[in-house]
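Blinded run. Sample ID left blank on purpose so nobody reads anything into the name before looking at the predicted structure. Input follows.
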Amino acid sequence: MALVLFTILLWTATATLGAIAFRRSDGTFAGGLRDAAREAVFIAPRLCIGILGAGFVAALLPADLVSAYLGAGSGIVGLAGASFAGMILPGGPVVAFAVGAAALEAGAGHGQVVSFVLGWLLLSSNRTLVWEIPIMGTRFVLFRMGLAMPIPLTIGYFISLLAN
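Blinded prediction complete.
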C-alpha cells in the first residue's frame, strides 16, 4: 500500500511541476522534457542491468551459507561481514536492496541485513573512490568514514536484539 501511495505522490508532484512549467510559456516545459529524456537514456540501461544482475544474485545466493554466516545467530562477526559486504558492493539501490531482500529470504538475520544496507549506504567504496575523494578530499572523507564506521554495526546489533 505504501508503494502505491508513494507512486501516486510522485505522479501528482510530476504533473503539478509539469503544469507549472507549461504555464510559464518560456520554454521551461520543453527544456524539462529534454532533460528528462537525456536522463532516461542515461539511466535506463543501467537500471535494467542492475535489476537483471540483482535477480541473478538472488537466485544464486546459497541459503545454507547465508544462514550460517549471516543468520540471526551469527553475532558481531555476521554483522561485520554484512557491513563489509555492503561496503564493497558496487551498484545503486536497485542492486543493494535486491541483494538485501534475497539475503533475508535465504536466511540472513534482520540485523545483518540492516548492517549490509547501512554499510552500502554509508561506506560505499565505489561512491567514495569515484565521487567523494575527488570532490571532497581525502581528509574530509576519512573523517566522515571514521565517524560512520560504527553505525552499521551498532544499528544492526540493536535490530538483532529487537528482532529476536
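Unblinding after everyone has recorded impressions. The chain has a mean pLDDT of 90.
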